[in-house]
Specification:
about 270 residues, alpha/beta, seven-stranded mixed sheet, 5 helices, binds FE2/S2 (inorganic) cluster
């Protein structure tokens, strides 16, 4: 747990924000897929911390001469309720209380296999740090980004700057191909000769579709769940999701905040 200073907080697309925050030195070892819990406001409303994926980790050099570079990190967020609306009103030098990094990250897998990242809307957030690490390891990486409109396709320029080949699809056709991003993913997999690992984060329907594609094609697939979290440390069980063997008579639940948020898609129950 640490107090963090906001370095910037900018609206990057209607309703979507990118915030940059200071962090202690040890935060620099956080893994792609891990998250933080942020307390927004000092009062009791909103009472609970909010979970946010780590988008990027970098260094910040304070303005004073001779200052030592500090670790900083970034998050993307969408304004969906009171907490995120309050976060969007905060400015440079404001302080927030952070718990993290938390949870398990992505397994980076075999460097030689193609890595196909599939993100929908704010689900693109944890995929950027993942792409950065995979590119460093010289893994071939492709991104499939989807959304309802072009406003939901975030930070594609940053992915392209890493050298990641990007495919975009929007439901209204305002950017890329019209339709679901999983169509582009399937087309690519049809043409692919070697092996591939899938990594996905986004809305439930998209994750379900990607998990099915992986199961049908017998490809490894890791999904990052955007669960509802209250504590973030395994204490409240408010974030649990059914595991693959779950039935009403034999419950099999996975704790998203401690066992996840990244899971092998074959470990979860995907039927409605
Ligand atoms: Fe409390 Fe996961 S958020 S147990």
């Amino acid at each position: 747990q640490f107090t963090s200073m906001i370095l910037s907080n900018v609206e990057i697309s209607p309703g979507y924000w990118r915030i940059r925050l200071t962090a202690p030195q040890e935060f620099g070892t956080a893994k792609p897929g891990q998250f933080v819990m942020v307390r927004i406001g000092g009062g009791i409303d909103p009472l609970l911390r909010r979970p946010f994926a780590i988008f990027d980790i970098g260094t910040h050099v304070p303005a004073q001469s001779g200052a030592v570079p500090q670790v900083c990190f970034e998050m993307l967020y969408k304004v969906v309720g009171k907490g995120t609306a309050m976060l969007s009103t905060l400015h440079e030098t404001d302080l927030v209380d952070i718990l993290g990094p938390l949870g398990t990250g992505f397994d980076l897998g075999d460097d030689n296999e193609e890595k196909l990242l599939v993100g929908g809307g704010i689900g693109l957030a944890p995929l950027y740090l993942l792409a950065t690490e995979l590119v460093k390891r010289k893994s071939p990486v492709r991104l499939f980004a989807g959304g309802r409109t072009c406003d939901d396709i975030l930070c594609i320029t940053e992915f392209k700057r890493l050298g990641v080949e990007c495919y975009t699809a929007t439901e209204d056709g305002s950017l890329g191909t019209q339709g679901f991003v999983t169509v582009a993913l399937n087309n690519h997999l049809d043409a692919l000769k070697g092996k591939a690992t899938l990594y996905a984060c986004g809305p439930d329907g998209m994750l379900r579709a990607v998990a099915k594609i992986a199961a049908d094609r017998q490809l490894p697939c890791q999904v990052s769940l955007e669960g509802y979290m209250a504590c973030g440390v395994g204490a409240c069980l408010g974030c649990v999701t059914p595991g693959k063997d779950h039935t009403p008579k034999t419950p099999d639940y996975r704790c998203v905040c401690t066992e996840g948020p990244v899971f092998d898609s074959s470990e979860l129950k995907w039927e409605a």
